[in-house]
Write a structure and sequence with these properties.
- Helices cover about 25% and strands about 30% of the residues.
- With about 325 residues, the protein is an alpha/beta fold.
- It folds into two domains: about 130 residues, 3-Layer(aba) Sandwich (Rossmann fold), CATH 3.40.50; about 160 residues, Tumour Suppressor Smad4 (Sandwich).
- The strands form two sheets. Strands 1, 2, 3, 4, 5, 6, 7, 9, 10, 14 and 17 form an eleven-stranded mixed β-sheet that branches. The protein has a six-stranded antiparallel β-sheet with strand order 13-12-11-8-15-16, with helices on one face.
- A hairpin with a 6-residue loop joins strand 15 and strand 16.
- The longest helix has 20 residues.
- The radius of gyration is 22 Å and the shape is globular.
């Protein structure tokens, strides 16, 4: 890859569970009292906190001689990444997901702060590699995997991106009402919402849907384990397709349930038109606070995004 120059490094972190507890209960002592009074151990909170801050110190000492800016996850929605920023994430896989939808073409380097607790599917590097990895990246000596993202574009000009999944439905547990269309198939539906998953998200919400669906059919039909349904859930992060599932579709005189799952491709988008006067939402990657209003008359075109996550890999 040709040598690149970066204006700055932006390091994204999030508060530890202990820090969030202290904010809620005003002190560590009160947080400990609350947790232990409920019969839980406080030691996991403190040990996880120490492990994260040890990794944070290691990363801080490893940063190259370039301007750096630290931001907390809570500021991502209002932060403007520059086109020549190098983005570094230290945290769980979800923090990579949270960060990705606010990036354009910037490369992202993700470090696992605590491999004993964090799976690190989207965290290719240990923090102990940070000095070597960052030195290579800032001189342009790195490779990337380009991860497919999903995109919901509304007919009012708004757009939201997702690295893992999109939710389209009602803001609460009430039924979502909408018209869904793909190709020549069009129908009105009432359901618990639509999930659209990328390859990166296929190990999360998509897998949960398939696991639950298989278990229900097994119990109802007293059949053998639906191993293919349970196990054949994952597809590659770079696959140029998305999978969609309608959750709990309800059949009535005014609602159908034929178009309930399928693939979305560039030449075969999914169109969803809201029939909810109020309360309709579209949010991505589980962040319910960052949503698009999806009320009556609004049409969402769901397709592969026009951007990808450039994840630096070893």
């Amino acid at each position: 890859m040709p040598e690149l120059s970066f204006d700055k490094i932006v390091i994204v972190t999030r508060k530890t569970a202990l820090e969030e507890l202290i904010e809620k209960h005003n002190s560590e002592a009160q947080a400990r009292f609350y947790i232990e009074r409920l019969g839980d151990s406080f030691d996991n909170y403190t040990s996880s906190h120490k492990a994260f801050h040890s990794s944070l110190d290691t990363l801080n000492r490893s940063l190259p001689d370039i301007r750096c800016q630290w931001i907390d996850r809570s500021f991502l929605a209002n932060f403007l990444f520059g086109p020549k920023d190098l983005v570094v994430v230290l945290g769980q896989d979800g923090l990579v997901v949270n960060t990705a939808k606010y990036l354009a073409d910037q490369p992202l380097v993700a470090f696992n702060p605590d491999p004993t607790r964090i799976d690190g599917i989207l965290l290719p590097f240990s923090v102990h590699q940070s000095k070597e990895i960052l030195k290579r990246v800032v001189t342009g000596n790195y490779q990337i995997d380009r991860l497919t993202m999903a995109q919901a574009s509304l007919n009012n000009g708004q757009t939201i991106y997702a690295l893992n999944d999109l939710f389209i439905g009602y803001a609460s547990h009430a039924s979502a009402r909408y018209r869904i269309a793909q190709g020549d198939v069009i129908e009105n539906q009432s359901s618990s919402g639509i999930i659209v998953s990328t390859g990166a998200g296929s190990t999360g919400w998509l897998r949960s849907i398939l696991t639950g669906s298989a278990a229900i059919v097994e119990a109802r039909e007293e059949c053998q384990l639906l191993s293919k349904t349970r196990d054949d859930y994952r597809f590659d992060y770079s696959t140029e397709a998305l999978a969609f599932f309608v959750r709990e579709p309800f059949i009535s005189r005014s609602s159908q349930a034929n178009l309930v799952t399928g693939l979305i491709r560039k030449d075969l988008p999914l169109l969803v038109t809201s029939q909810m006067p109020t309360g309709g939402v579209i949010f991505s990657d589980g962040v319910e606070q960052d949503f698009l209003a999806f009320d009556s008359g609004t049409t969402a075109t769901i397709n592969i995004a026009d951007r990808k996550l450039n994840l630096v890999v070893d």
